[in-house]
Amino acid sequence: NLTKIDKWFLEQIWELIELEKEIERHDLLSIPVELMRTAKEKGYADRQIAHLIGCLESEVHQKRRQMGINRVYKLVDTCAAEFEAKTPYYYSTFDSENESTVSNRKKVIVLGSGPNRIGQGIEFD
Length: 125
Description:
Carbamoyl Phosphate Synthetase, Chain A, domain 4
């Protein structure tokens, strides 16, 4: 093992390289829904996909929305499944299951900035 990098990490990087090669074989009109979904689930930004297929970020965004690939929200389990969290919080991602709940209650948004950002540690949130 020349690099001393764990083989698992190298395999993950290899999978991303192969994914990018597959994306580059397409243009905006020909990219399949499942390939777009896979790219988003793997964390690729619309801008990265646009660069790979040679179009504008806004065009990828519009195409993705037309394909029904939208952001969902996943629950951060602050109680390690011991009991139900009274004040759960969420992160956004691209996946098939949305874990957020819709309510008519008043809402508030908290924006983080400075040295202690939201998500850095639960004691700061």
